[in-house]
């Protein structure tokens, strides 16, 4: 599969959410299998952008790019083989280190202890990723043209800036307009970059890259739409496992709270707040730009976009361009699904020991309809299978729209 021309690149943007990331796999699986089947050709996913668990998913899809129809199925196989007792183990050293830092402080962020301080030990997840995702294949696929670019976003702890690591065939950065909150860096993306992007504060310890500590890229950029645009995407598909209740029952001021929320409940809400995305605002801004450019084209002719970019001082081929977009977000509350699953006989049969007790305790301590922390930690194959099915169903509900999107991108290429 040759790389797409500049005017027809499609970007797949994957958001964060820890164990919720299985949902993204189901959406992508429907796209590469069922949408491709109806179109009669493999769908192009030229630019892959991910943050947090989305970065791990994006890296896997990049590593399996030589299997266009099977890459999502291969990723689904990894997710459905997960065992929570192997991946969710308390990081005792990290907990002690975090307590020490809170009590006595640590003025020297360069000390080794700065890399510690998570509730969950990442060793199981790191071993799994390193043994199942062939990161060395990513560069080969970029060089052969199967991909145009892969990006992974992290948060640089010392400065709080978002770092976007860009891996592409040219091994350098494309023109990148100044953004005070984002720093792009050319890199050959490795497992360490993905681990850093997925290091959710409080849950996992920070990861050291090039002598600097990094954590979850979703703190400021949970949905990395900006890198896709700067890398030349003319169409973008965004997949987000964050549920938005269209009719919230618990709006502020509508009920009385008789019970003080427990610390685990508050931790789940804290993670939600930390990983709050602005994708609706970003896409609304994108649609506004598209409308302005289209109105200008109708009013002033086909050269309007080139003329306005020239007037703004952008080099030829850069600047504002129309960009098609689709957002697929989970239609079901994953926190509620997690709570129901942990309370089910299936979970009791599958998960025992300390991990099972921990998950059941989390389920008991959180309201049944708001098990947010539980849904971040539930790295279990059977639960992942449920989320993959939800993702496939949500993508299936948008099947016609997805087909129209890729057909329009094909017309642009022609």
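-> sequence recovered:
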């Amino acid at each position: 599969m040759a790389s797409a021309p500049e005017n027809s690149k499609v970007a797949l943007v994957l958001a964060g959410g820890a164990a919720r990331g299985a949902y993204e796999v189901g959406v992508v699986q429907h796209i590469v299998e069922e949408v491709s089947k109806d179109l009669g050709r493999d769908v192009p996913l030229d630019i892959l952008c991910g943050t947090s668990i989305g970065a791990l998913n994006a890296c896997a899809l990049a590593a399996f790019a030589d299997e266009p129809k099977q890459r999502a199925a291969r990723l689904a196989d990894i997710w459905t083989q997960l065992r929570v007792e192997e991946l969710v183990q308390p990081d005792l050293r990290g907990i002690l280190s975090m307590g020490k830092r809170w009590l006595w402080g640590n003025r020297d962020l360069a000390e080794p202890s700065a890399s510690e301080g998570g509730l969950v030990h990442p060793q199981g997840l790191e071993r799994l990723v390193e043994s199942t995702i062939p990161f060395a294949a990513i560069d080969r696929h970029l060089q052969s043209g199967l991909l145009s670019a892969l990006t992974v976003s992290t948060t640089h702890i010392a400065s709080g800036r978002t770092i976007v690591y860009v891996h592409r065939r040219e091994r350098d950065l494309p023109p990148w307009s100044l953004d005070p909150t984002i720093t792009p860096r050319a890199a050959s993306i490795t497992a360490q970059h993905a681990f850093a992007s997925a290091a959710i504060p409080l849950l996992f310890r920070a990861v050291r890259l090039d002598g600097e500590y990094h954590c979850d890229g979703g703190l400021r950029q949970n949905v990395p739409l900006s890198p896709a645009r700067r890398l030349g995407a003319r169409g973008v598909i965004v997949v987000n496992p964050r549920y938005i209740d269209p009719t919230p029952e618990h709006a502020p001021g509508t009920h009385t709270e008789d019970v003080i929320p427990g610390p685990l409940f508050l931790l789940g809400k804290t993670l939600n707040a930390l990983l709050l995305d602005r994708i609706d605002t970003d896409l609304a801004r994108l649609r506004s730009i598209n409308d302005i450019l289209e109105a200008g084209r109708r009013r002033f002719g086909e050269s309007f976009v080139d003329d306005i970019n020239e007037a703004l001082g952008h080099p030829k081929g850069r600047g504002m361009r129309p960009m098609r977009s689709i957002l697929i977000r989970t239609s079901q509350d994953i926190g509620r699904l997690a709570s129901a699953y942990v309370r089910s006989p299936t979970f009791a049969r599958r998960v025992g020991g300390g991990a099972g007790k921990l998950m059941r305790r989390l389920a008991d301590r959180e309201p049944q309809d708001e098990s947010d922390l539980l849904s971040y930690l539930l790295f279990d194959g059977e639960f992942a299978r449920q989320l993959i099915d939800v993702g496939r169903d949500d993508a299936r509900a948008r099947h016609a729209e997805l087909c129209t999107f890729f057909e329009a991108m094909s017309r642009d290429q022609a």
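Confidence is low (pLDDT under 50) at residues 1-5, 107-115, 253-260.
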